Amino acid sequence: MWEQVQETVSFIQNKINFTPEYGVILGSGLGSFTEEMEIVYTLPYNEIPNFPVSTVQGHKGALVFGTIGDKKVVAMQGRFHFYEGYSMKEVTFPVRVMKYLGMTKLIVSNASGGVNSDYQVGSIVVLKDHINFLPEHPLRGKNDERFGPRFVNMSEPYSRKMIAHASALAVDLGISINLGIYLGLQGPTFETLAEYKMVKILGADCVGMSTVPEVIVARHMDVETFGISVITDMGDAASIDTISHDEVLEAAKGAEPKVRQLIRELVLTY
Ligand code: HPA
């Protein structure tokens, strides 16, 4: 995989002379973030060698290069989910590529279901930790020490410094945030009521189907990581009857301006 990553990095560097400091993975709830960027170059995934091939027709996916103030950013517009059938190596390949393009800080966003009763639809959760309940691990198999160590220290999956900085920014901006724990499940089904209860008992505040693999691989390569989630539905008896993908997207859109603003300021000032 090392050679594949380097080949992809060389391909991109031949197209554009750009060293991004920040990588941003745009999940539901941050899709329009590229509007905060002065876009320099857009590279569709299907033109990038070794990138996973999307089987979904009309699937939007691109690496978007640009600046926010004096900060250089590469954004993933569209991510790869394990439930779509990609291997964990495929799901996380773009994170490795961004690292060798120069990324030292990764910001990951997603939509999730809330199981903390303090939350409501539209709540913004800054991730302080996660629980990995996905059935495959991106680092399983022979370890390549050039990427990072065999046994990765996960004491700080999400940068405490970035969390503190973002928390202070949120106060200044008048944006209410929560600090919470994300549990990653395979999906693609939403959880049953019993499963949402399980998630809560296990100690998490929200549950979703992404993020954990990308964060593990970022930490493998010692990339500083920040995660943010929009609660798009509540996993309780009163709420789960109506959950659908459309509802998730709509709820995520509602919180999007605030998430965008917070991430923009974080990139500018951290
Ligand atoms: N469960 C899993 N993934 C999700 C949810 C949920 O309730 N909401 C948004 N993504």
TrEMBL record:
Keyword Glycosyltransferase tagged: yes
Query: Does this entry carry the keyword Thylakoid?
Result: no
The record's listing under InterPro entries reads:
Nucleoside_phosphorylase_d, Nucleoside_phosphorylase_sf, Pur_Nuc_Pase_Ino/Guo-sp, Purine_phosphorylase, Purine_phosphorylase-2_CS
The residues forming the signal peptide are none
Q: Name one GO cellular component term.
A: cytoplasm
Q: Which GO terms describe its biological process?
A: nucleoside metabolic process
Per its UniProt record, what NCBIfam families does this chain match? PNPH (TIGR01700), PNPH-PUNA-XAPA (TIGR01697), PRK08202.1 (NF006054)
Q: What is this protein called?
A: Purine nucleoside phosphorylase
Source species, please? Flavobacterium succinicans
What gene name is listed for this protein? punA
